[in-house]
């Protein structure tokens, strides 16, 4: 596998971990908070939808792939038996652990620094989620296939929409910062699922994001 792209992505998320978490914490100027509310409304909506999707009592365990600062793990930790958050950015995992401590759920959250594609897992999870992660994955089929194989009930993932004004803006901004970024059509997401052993349960547009809920086809 070409390791240059993942190394660039890792380097980028090591650099901007603290800044990224302020989208959730609001620890920034009122003007920047306002910008987030206006231009990142779909990030808050995908957060709400994901927590809702995984909140059902039937979901006892969650694997959060590309957990970042672990924000999805915090509300889920309270009602679940097992939460594992994985990210290859050490600074992100440091923040995730700190936030879990502050929220009083540190004992229920297991966080690991690892590239998901290299992570050896000898357990399956009811829900496997990857939110805001496929934006940075150069080979999405093996990544999604691994998520499918690791999940028992559902996979929840997001994919940035190709045909939106934001796509070229992000492409330029991230490439200038040294981080590759990828965009998807709905047809491409459906094809990825078919090739990864997933049956699409729902695929909807949330702002400039495709929000996918799928079930592992072999179960
Ligand atoms: C936009 S952040 C999203 C964080 C979190 N899911 C959220 O929505 O708040 C993307 C994260 O994916 C992580 N990531 C990307 N590729 C990864 C890989 N192959 N293995 C582990 N983490 C990865 C990055 O380090 C980064 O923290």
Q: Name the strands of the widest sheet in spatial order.
A: 3-2-1-4-5-7-6
Write the element-wise H/E pattern from the N-terminal end onward: HHHHEHEHEEHEHHEE
Provide mean pLDDT, rounded: 94
User: Would you tell me which CATH topology applies?
Assistant: Rossmann fold
Instruction: Count helical runs.
Output: 9
The count of domains is 1
Please report which band the strand proportion falls in: under 5%, 5-15%, 15-25%, 25-35%, 35-45% or over 45%. Answer: 15-25%
Q: Please identify the oligomeric state.
A: single chain
User: Which spans have pLDDT < 50 for at least 5 consecutive residues?
Assistant: none
Helix content: 40-55%
Alpha carbon gap, first and last residue:
29 Å
Record field, number of beta strands: 7
Structure commentary:
- By secondary structure, this protein is α/β, with parallel strands linked by helices.
- Helices cover 44% and strands 22% of the residues.
- The protein is built from 9 helices and 7 strands, in the order ααααβαβαββαβααββ.
- Helix 7 (140-150) crosses helix 9.
- The two termini are 29 Å apart.
- The structure holds S-adenosylmethionine.
- S-adenosylmethionine (SAM) is lined by residues 6, 9, 13, 66-68, 71, 86-89, 92, 115-117, 131-133, 136.
- S-adenosylmethionine binds next to helix 1 and strand 2.
